[in-house]
Write a structure and sequence with these properties.
The complex is a heterodimer of chains A (252) and B (225). In chain A, helix 3 packs across helix 4 (113-126), helix 3 (97-107) packs parallel to helix 5 (142-155) and helix 5 packs parallel to helix 6 (172-187). The relative contact order of chain A is 0.16. Chain A is built from nine helices and ten strands. Chain A is α/β, with parallel strands linked by helices and 252 residues long. Chain A has helices at residues 40-47, 72-80, 97-107, 113-126, 142-155, 172-187, 199-205, 223-228, 233-251, and strands at 2-11, 14-24, 29-33, 55-60, 63-66, 82-85, 160-164, 192-195, 208-213, 216-221. With 225 residues, chain B is an all-alpha fold. In chain B, helix 2 runs antiparallel to helix 3, helix 4 (69-83) crosses helix 5 (92-118) and helix 8 (176-187) packs antiparallel against helix 9 (190-221). Chain B is flat and about 70 Å long. Classes of the chains: A alpha/beta (252), B mainly alpha (225). Bound molecules: adenosine-5'-triphosphate (ATP) and magnesium ion (MG). Magnesium ion is lined by residues 40-41, 164-165 of chain A. Residues 11, 16, 34, 36-42 of chain A line the site of adenosine-5'-triphosphate.
Chain lengths: 252, 225
């Protein structure tokens, strides 16, 4: 169970997150949508303390922090309880696929190398990359790299995996395999908070869709309602543009 | 016409000089090892901008890059014992190693820093996102990759350092250059003596340059399987 209360983040006086309240149940799959520059990435980065929020209260499992008073230990703990999947994969270039997945277990959880590698092999099997265990990121396709990125997040056994546009940097041919892996995780009820422009994924997989604009949550609900009967004119406006775009993409 | 060069003398000099080669190489090796450790520390201070230490590091780098190595060596050999009474006499070899270490660490710190900063920032975020500390991030992710970038430059500094050990003779150390100087003073065959020692340095440097090229090829193959 994750709870965000009154989360505020300012960049140079501008409130990029302007009081976000959000509760995520265990096993819930939430998709966040919204126009560019709305603070979607910033929200995820604040949950992971990659950005230091300016105000708010954060509960992750039994960890509770007032973000303005978070100590280094609190931040480390919050990071260990949340895993991040990056738009550009951000794999460790000096580690193999296996090494990327095992790294956190060895360094952060202090598992013996053998045990960490055994777990990493299990994860490689689940992400369908057993044969790439010894491959370095530079020799993997974008889709394979992102699957390793997801594998690295899976290894962390975090309360929630935060996905920031995981398919946006991919060549179109690799998008499907990454979405399929995410669907598999959703099926296993892995708690996920996903920022994406893949409306199909949101519609098919999400328990709840959140529409953000201007640093606030404008509207949220199950995908059938948010897509089928959006209440706020800003949501309708955004969906019209995005769906028109996707249709024109599909028809070309 | 008389022979210009006394080749027999030069050949005879080779075994004599070979006896002093180990000292030259030892000073360079120890100096390089110490300089590497120091430079890594300085570079990390610069990258993390550790308050206070950062300013001190900048001053250190500026001084040791801004003054001649020979001046620094004299400062350590002649100056330090006057300043610090317990160092009644500092050994010329120690002073040389100290000077080489500090002088070259200043240069090396900057190239290591550049290599560290060059590591893709998103990997830093990825490491932090799984809960690594700054130290773990440096040791496990950033420094190994920075090494690969920095090694060719650092090899160049090592080559420079080997040549710079010749300055030790001004502190009374009988290494390669000091030995040559003595031989030449005895035989008056200055040209023969100094061209012989020049070839010594040249061969060492060429051997190292060959190692450097091989190392670079190997490093460029890494992370590509
Ligand atoms: N480190 C930063 N320094 C200053 N401004 C920033 C920083 N990071 C983000 N911003 C600003 O905060 C706003 C929100 O950015 P954010 O990346 O969270 O938006 P987003 O909703 O993820 O957009 P996109 O869909 O384009 O990824 C933007 O105006 C951006 O320019
Ligand atoms: Mg974003």
């Amino acid at each position: 169970m994750i709870k965000v209360q009154g989360l505020v983040k300012r960049f140079g006086g501008v409130a990029v997150l302007d009081g976000i309240d959000l509760a995520i149940e265990q096993g819930e799959i939430i998709v966040v949508i919204g126009p560019s520059g709305t603070g979607k990435s910033t929200l995820l980065r604040c949950l992971n303390f990659l950005e230091r929020p300016d105000a708010g209260h954060l509960t992750i499992g039994d960890l509770e922090v007032d973000v303005t008073r978070a100590s280094r230990a609190d931040m480390l703990e919050a990071r260990r309880r949340t895993a991040f999947v990056f738009q550009n994969y951000a794999l460790f270039a000096n580690k193999t696929a296996l090494g990327n997945i095992a790294e956190g277990l060895i360094v952060v959880n202090r598992w013996p190398k053998q045990k960490a590698h055994a777990r990493a092999r299990e994860i490689l099997e689940r992400i369908g990359l057993t044969d790439k265990a010894d491959a370095y990121p530079a020799s993997l396709s974008g889709g394979q790299q992102q699957r390793v990125g997801i594998g690295r997040a899976m290894a962390a056994q975090a309360e929630v995996i935060l996905f920031d546009e995981p398919t946006s940097s991919l060549d179109p041919e690799w998008v499907e395999e990454v979405l399929a892996l995410m669907k598999q995780l959703a099926h296993e009820r892995q708690t996920m908070l996903v920022v994406t422009h893949e409306m199909g994924f949101a519609r098919d997989v999400a328990d709840r869709v959140i529409f953000m604009e201007g640093g606030r949550i404008v509207e949220q609900g199950p995908p059938s309602r948010l897509f089928g009967d959006p209440q706020d004119p800003r949501t309708r406006d955004f969906l019209r543009k995005v769906l028109a775009n996707q249709v024109s993409l599909e028809s070309t | 016409m008389m022979s210009v060069l006394d080749f027999d003398y030069m050949l005879g000099l080779v075994p004599v000089l070979l006896r002093y080669l180990p000292l030259t190489l030892q000073m360079a090796a120890v100096g390089m090892a110490l300089a590497l450790v120091l430079a890594c520390g300085l570079a990390v201070i610069r990258v993390l901008r550790i308050p206070g230490l950062n300013a001190a590091t900048l001053l250190f780098i500026s001084f040791f890059r801004g003054t001649p190595l020979l001046v620094q060596l004299f400062l350590f050999y002649y100056g330090l014992p006057q300043l610090l009474a317990f160092l009644t006499q500092i050994n010329g070899i120690t002073a040389t190693i100290m000077g080489l270490t500090l002088h070259f660490s200043a240069y090396m710190a900057e190239s290591i820093r550049a290599a560290i900063v060059g590591v893709d920032r998103s990997q830093t975020e990825a490491a932090l996102s799984i809960g690594m500390t700054n130290g773990q991030l440096m040791r496990r992710i950033v420094l190994p990759q920075a090494t690969r970038v920095a090694v060719p430059t650092l090899m160049n500094y090592f080559i420079d350092m080997i040549k710079a050990t010749s300055l030790a003779f001004t502190l009374g150390v009988t290494e390669l250059m000091g030995a040559t100087q003595k031989e030449a003073a005895g035989s008056f065959l200055y040209f023969e003596a100094f061209i012989t020692v020049a070839v010594f340095y040249w061969v060492i440097v060429e051997l190292l340059a060959w190692c450097q090229r091989r190392l670079e090829t190997r490093l460029n193959e890494a992370y590509r399987r």
